[in-house]
Design a protein that fits this description.
It contains 9 helices and 10 strands. It is an alpha/beta fold. It has 2 domains: 114 residues, Tetrapyrrole methylase, N-terminal domain (Cobalt-precorrin-4 Transmethylase, domain 1, 3-Layer(aba) Sandwich), CATH 3.40.1010; 122 residues, 2-Layer Sandwich (Methyltransferase, Cobalt-precorrin-4 Transmethylase, Domain 2). The strands form 2 sheets. Strands 3-2-4-1-5 form a 5-stranded parallel sheet, with helices on both faces. Helix 7 packs antiparallel against helix 8. It is globular.
Length: 259
């Protein structure tokens, strides 16, 4: 009896291939076909064996895109072909990655699913930029939201809860709407002076960042010309270690040379 069709839905992490899990690496090495998103890092894609078929189903903002329903059908068709299928998604598949939608569709069509978690962009960005998402006395919790919405719809979010000063707010896919997000947060009580951070390509060599108070964040990001993917972190924790690391860097630059 042939094995039951199976799809591995694998998290590729935030971009740096060294942050890929061992299990994800092993599955990539044995895959016969890899269906991947646009935000999977080039270094991770380079780990796919040359013999494996690659299918790019990435969605480019404002550009060509593969419909989600078509991706679902593609995964079913590939699984039923008997090949070893990896669905490779940036970050973690189950956090704003539609991994749940794809897994549900596969299960409903008799396809076995295994999900391999990945380091989500928030954790990669926080570690890369030395920002603790929670910290005693500053932030007792963290909330993750997406700033992306369908055309014609605005974000129906718990703005009052998100404005809680004891909560670190992480915003995925929010670049296009950061002015309105900032305005809503301040209108519901978040201090305009709250430190905020925008990071493009976190964990990768071309990483760029902008730090600004919430009230000036949108203008600062536009002036810097940041481009997707950009992740935002809002909260007092943003500046916690920044000043200490800057001071340490300055001390090292002033240290006398010996030898």
């Amino acid at each position: 009896m042939p094995p039951r069709p199976l799809v591995h839905i694998v998290g590729a992490g935030p971009g740096d291939p060294e942050l890929l899990t061992l299990k994800a690496y092993r599955l990539l090495q044995t895959a016969q076909v890899v269906v991947h998103d646009r935000l999977v890092g080039d270094g991770v894609l380079a780990l796919i064996p040359a013999a494996a078929e690659r299918i790019d189903v990435g969605k480019t903002p404002g550009g060509p895109r593969v419909d989600q329903a078509a991706i679902n059908r593609l995964l079913v068709r590939l699984a039923r072909s008997g090949r070893r299928v990896v669905r490779l998604k940036g970050g973690d598949p189950l956090l704003f990655g539609r991994g749940g939608e794809e897994a549900l569709f596969l299960l409903q069509h008799g396809i076995e699913v295994e999900v391999v978690p990945g380091i989500t962009a928030a954790f990669g960005c926080a570690a890369d930029r030395l920002v603790p998402l929670t910290h005693r006395g500053l932030a007792t919790g963290v909330r993750f939201i997406t700033g992306h919405c369908r055309a014609g719809w605005w974000l129906d979010l718990d703005w009052r809860g998100l404005a809680d000063p004891a909560t670190t707010l992480v915003i995925y896919m929010g670049l296009a709407h950061i002015e309105e997000i900032s305005r809503q947060l301040m209108a519901h009580g978040r201090d305009p002076a709250t430190p905020a951070l925008a990071v493009q390509n976190a964990t990768l060599p071309g990483v760029r960042e902008v730090r600004a108070p919430l009230g000036h964040l949108a203008a600062a990001v536009r002036a810097a010309g940041l481009e997707p993917p950009v992740l935002f972190i809002v909260g007092e924790v943003v500046e916690l270690m920044h000043h200490a690391s800057t001071a340490l860097h300055n001390l090292k630059s002033l240290a006398p040379c010996h030898g």
